[in-house]
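User: Here's a protein and a ligand (zinc ion). What would the complex look like?
Assistant: Let me lay out the input and then the predicted complex.
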Amino acid sequence: MSQADQCADHAGERADSRQVQALRGSMKYTIRLRAAACVIALALSGCAAFSAGGMSATTARYRHAARQGRESGKGLAVYTISPSEFPQGSSFAAIRDANPTSEGAQLLRDEVLTDVTIAKTAQERGLPNAIGFAVSWAGQTQRFIMFYERPPRSIVLQRSSMDVQWASLSQLAESTISGEIPAVPRSIQRIGLNKEPMPPQWPVTIPSDMRDAFEVPVAPAEPPAQVDGHDYAAVADDLKTRLPQSTDEQSRQRANAALRRLEPAANLTGLNWRVIVFTGAGPMGFGVPDGSLFVSDGLVQILDDDELAAILAHVMGHERHQHARACAKRRNIMVAVMLVGGAFSLAGTGIGFFLIPTGNYVGLIADPEFGYSDQHELEANSAAAELLTAAKLPPDVLFDVMMKLSAQGQPGTLAYSQMHHLPVARAQYGLMLDAGMIAAR
Ligand SMILES: [Zn+2]
């Protein structure tokens, strides 16, 4: 945008600022009418009536509710905003009249139309290049972050979830600006602004008193000092016979070399590290609590040596924490609850542990409900960062490889990106790097 255009735009914004005041009043009235109409419509014909009116402040609130249900406790969801989605600029009228198609731009538009503070910020500071959205664990607080590339700036807005629920259909929400930093954290530059990998050092941009505002996860507990995974050796042996061994000798050699780089730091009695490369076209990788690490040759072939070490370190992190054991326990408890009688007594004896068919081991850890959780991924990544640092590898390699594998987008429960919750995991790990919680070398 030229200087002249910018000046014209600012003049427009000043005019629009008055419009916002007027609109704010008229929107309140409109929303009240809509709310009344919706209650009647709901009584008559169910929820479908809500979508009939097209885009409105009311539908925005429903989108919020859906988002809240989907993302509660999942940390910061980051969306890219393409300027072409708002061709007329950042004035209130331009945003109102735009017809964006991407999820991020629609969310931004909804926010501008329903939240007075966000509308004001967009007018005064222009449209952000990316936004972040988060709902607190308890669902009480919503955070909305506007990321600006030039000059670099991140503005954190916060409000109560009650503002966007049924009780307040007749009011516009009003956030408060809870913080601002003169930077866009590197993880957001990579995820939200589509920047290429950047060399170490990874700059610390999120001060410790701003960690909550940016949804930086709490540092997970260290892995236990002692583990014993020997009881899973039979599961690993069984898997080894079921999965076709890779015929790609180079992949096998590279995977073993990567393990040797990490092994000195990962030395732990009770775990017997070994890497098994199986034939698989897509990127797949998982471990077994005895210390066996399974990777597909399709994964090995698309990674360089450092990236391969980073992925192995992550899988080793799961086994340092014995996460599969936790998944198995959770599943047994659920089965016991569902079956209520005999299985319940089994759960109390510890025998239930051996009831998992080994053939389903991978299905267990990949299960969306009982498999690895977001917290497991956080713990595995934290443990991986320590291994990488000890092996003199920059821990941000792990972030870069997660970006790479997210882009692969391989469907299927065995795909690395799906089993290891990459969109959430990379955002969490990246924010920990941004906050200096992981010692970058
Ligand atoms: Zn994982």
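Summary: Residues 276 and 294 are 5 Å apart (CA to CA).
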